[in-house]
Amino acid sequence: MQLTHRPVISATGLFTPDESITNEELVASFNTYVERHNARHAAAIAAGEIEPLQPSSVEFIEKASGIKSRHVMSKAPILDPDVMAPRWNERSDDELSILAEIGVSAAQVALKRAQRDTSDVDAVLCAASNMQRPYPAMAIEIQQALGIEGFAFDMNVACSSATFGIQTAADYIRAGHAKSVLVVSPEITSGHLNWRDRDSHFIFGDVATAVLVEDAGIAPAAHWDILGTSLKTVFSNNIRNNFGFLNRAHPETANAPDKLFVQEGRKVFKEVVPMVAQMITDEAQRLGIDPHHIRRLWLHQANAGMNRLIAHRVLGHDASEDESPTVLDTYGNTSSAGSIIAFHKHSADLAAGDVGLICSFGAGYSAGTVFVRKAA
Predict the structure, then answer these.
(1) Is residue 241 left, alpha or beta, with left meaning phi > 0 and alpha meaning psi from -120 to 50?
(2) Which of 277, 283, 271 has the alpha carbon at shortest distance from 319?
(3) 23-40 and 58-65 helices cross at what angle (nearest 10)?
(4) Which CATH number does 225-374 carry?
(5) CB-CB neighbours of 340 under 10 Å
(6) Are 210 and 183 in contact (CB under 8 A)?
(7) Catalytic pick among 84, 99, 159, 341
(8) DSSP sequence for 79-92
(9) Are 12 and 184 a contacting pair, CB within 8 Å?
(10) How is the chain split into domains, by residue range?
(11) Of 18, 83, 284, 330, which shows the fewest CB atoms inside 10 Å?
(12) Residue 288, Cβ neighbours under 10 Å: how many?
C-alpha cells in the first residue's frame, strides 16, 4: 500500500533587529548628504555640467510606498551622511556569519512554536535574495549551527524565494524524501541598497523568517494545510542588482549605483500587478476556491499601492486591513520575508477551516502562491 504524504505548515519564526530607522531620521540624513553634495559641486551645477541632487521628504516616501520605518542591523552608519551604508566588524571564518545568525534565531522560534527538536528536521533551505557569499551555502551553516542532520542548500528567486522554498519543501514531503523541512529567509537587504538614491533609499529593511514545512502525520494539531502552490517566472530587467563577486573587479566601481538595487518602479507596477492577480485567481479556480471568499491575503510587502490593487482584483472589492494585513509600514520591504512576516503576525486569529493565501512577487520577475487552510 502506497503511503500518502501531505505537506503542512507547522509553524513560523521571526527575527526582528532591535534598531529601526524612521522616515524622519532617514530624510534628515539624506537631505544633509544632498546639501553637502550640491555645495561641493556648486560650480559644476552652475555651469550646467551636472544636475543638482533633489531632497527627499517624509510625504514623498509615504505616498510612494506606504513605508513609515524599517528595521536594520546597523543604524548609525546608514544615517551618517559620510557613510550611508551598513557597517559591522568582519567575522572570521570560524565565527557564525551574520546572515546565518539571524536565520538561526528565526528558525529557533519556529521550532519552539512547533515543539520540534532539531533531531526531527531533515533539511534546511536558505531561501533569500541577499546572500552573504556564494559558498559554502548559508543553509549548510545554519544547519550546522542548529545541529540538524540531513541536507541543506541555498536558493535565490529574489522576493519570491520563500514561497519557492515552501513549494520545494512541500515537494520533498509529498515525495517522501523528508518529513520535516525548515525554509529560512534571512534578509539583510540594507547592504544591497543605494542609500544615496532618492527614489529607492527608503525601500528596504532587515529581518529573518523561518517556515517549518512538515508531513501532516507528525505535525502539531495547530497547523496549516497546504492546499496548493504555484510558481511563475518571466525575465525582466525592471528590477535588478549587479552587486556580486563577478562585478567587483575594479575597486572604483565596487559601490557604483548600478551595482546596487535599481528598478523601473512604474513599469514594475504596471506589469506585475495584473500578472500576480491573474495567477492568484487561476490557482484558486484550479483548487476549487472562490477567490472572493479567501479569508486573508498575506501579500509580499513591497508597495502599499500594489497590494491594494492586487487585493481588489482578487477579492472584488477594496480589502480591509483584516483581509490584507500590512507590515510594510513598520518593516519596509524585506524581500522574500515580507509575506511570511505578515503570515506570522496576522494568522493566529483565523478559525479552523479558514482559507488564506501567502503570495510573493518580485525581481525576475518571479511570483509564488501558497494556498493554506487552518486545521485547528
Answers:
(1) beta
(2) 277
(3) 120
(4) 3.40.47.10
(5) 33
(6) yes
(7) 159
(8) H-TTT-S---PPPP
(9) no
(10) 225-374
(11) 18
(12) 8
Coil, strand, or helix at residue 358? strand
Cβ-Cβ contacts under 8 Å for 190 (sequence gap 6 or more): 72, 73, 74, 78, 85, 86, 204, 205, 206
CB 339, CB 78: distance < 8 Å: no
| Tens-level pLDDT at each residue, the chain (376 residues) | 346 899 999 999 999 999 999 999 999 999 999 999 999 999 999 999 999 999 999 999 999 999 999 999 999 999 999 999 999 999 999 999 999 999 999 999 999 999 999 999 999 999 999 999 989 999 999 999 999 999 999 999 999 999 999 999 999 999 999 999 999 999 999 999 999 999 999 999 999 999 999 999 999 999 999 999 999 999 999 999 887 777 665 545 445 666 788 889 899 999 999 999 999 999 999 999 999 999 999 999 999 999 999 999 999 999 999 999 999 999 999 999 999 999 999 999 999 999 999 999 999 999 999 999 999 7
Residue of 20, 18, 32 whose CA lies nearest to 84: 32
Per-residue cell: 234: 518571466
The overall pTM is greater than 0.85 = yes
159 is catalytic: yes
Grid-cell match 493566529, residue found: 348
Pick from 357, 374, 78: which is nearest to 222 by CA? 374
Q: How far is CA 166 from CA 35, 212, 324, in A?
A: 46, 9, 20
Packing angle of the helix pair 304-315, 265-286 (nearest 10 deg): 30
In the DSSP assignment, the letter for residue 169 is: H
Assigned C-alpha cell, 134? 556564494
Where b means 16+ CB within 10 Å and e means fewer, 76-95 reads ebbbebeebbbeeeeeeeee
User: Cell for 7?
Assistant: 505537506
Name the one residue in this structure whose C-alpha cell is 517556515.
211
